């Protein structure tokens, strides 16, 4: 599927100025090839009606953009950054080095090494610069973690997460009942 229509596609050299109005979450990725992994994060934010922006920032191919994006993230109103990258996945850590916002890292599985390269790159941050790392290719959990982070200051999101957990429980219990019928 494609990104939400109201999300603007940004030129690689410009910092996003519009996406959803007043985005709270920045969803960034090292390449458009990461989009299938990162879209589920955006879908979660859609589900919880959280405004976000979605764009490409490459630590290696667009280093100036990385600095500009990271340094302006908080002052532009973002509260959380979700950053996905594969291979030598320096994007989340470098963003975390340049902003005080919480950064969630998504290791993206590439064509070799099964994504363990990206996982290790993202999770093994040096003392002082934390990145909250989710499982390989788990954009969904990145989105959910961002919702939980925002929930610390937005109580309606706590209730919404509780509702989400209840829906998971209901789904599993439905499967339990089906097995009992066998
Ligand atoms: C990383 O290199 C990106 O995050 C992507 O996962 C990987 C491959 O990028 P492409 O060559 O597909 O653009 O920086």
In which order are the strands of the major sheet placed?
A: 2-1-3-4-5
Arithmetic mean of pLDDT: 92
Low-confidence spans:
1-14
Please count the beta strands (DSSP E, at least 2 residues each): 5
Number of domains: 2
Strand content: 5-15%
Largest beta-sheet characterization:
5 strands, parallel
Number of helical regions = 6
Order of helices and strands: EHEHEHEHEHH
Keywords: ATP-binding, Decarboxylase, Lyase, Nucleotide-binding, Purine biosynthesis
Protein name: Phosphoribosylaminoimidazole carboxylase
GO molecular function: ATP binding; metal ion binding; phosphoribosylaminoimidazole carboxylase activity
Family: In the C-terminal section; belongs to the AIR carboxylase family. Class I subfamily.
Description:
With about 180 residues, this protein is an alpha/beta fold. The protein folds into two domains: about 25-150, 3-Layer(aba) Sandwich (Rossmann fold), CATH 3.40.50; about 155-180. The protein contains six helices and five strands, in the order E-H-E-H-E-H-E-H-E-H-H. The chain has a five-stranded parallel sheet, sandwiched between helices. Helix 1 (about 35-45) links the parallel strand 1 (about 25-30) and strand 2 (about 50-55). The protein is globular. The protein starts with about 25 loop residues before the first strand and ends with a helix. Mean pLDDT is about 90; it is low at about 1-15. 5-O-phosphono-beta-D-ribofuranose (RP5) binds near residues 30, 87 and 110.
List keywords for this structure.
182 residues; alpha/beta; Rossmann fold; 2 domains; five-stranded parallel β-sheet; 43% helix; binds 5-O-phosphono-beta-D-ribofuranose
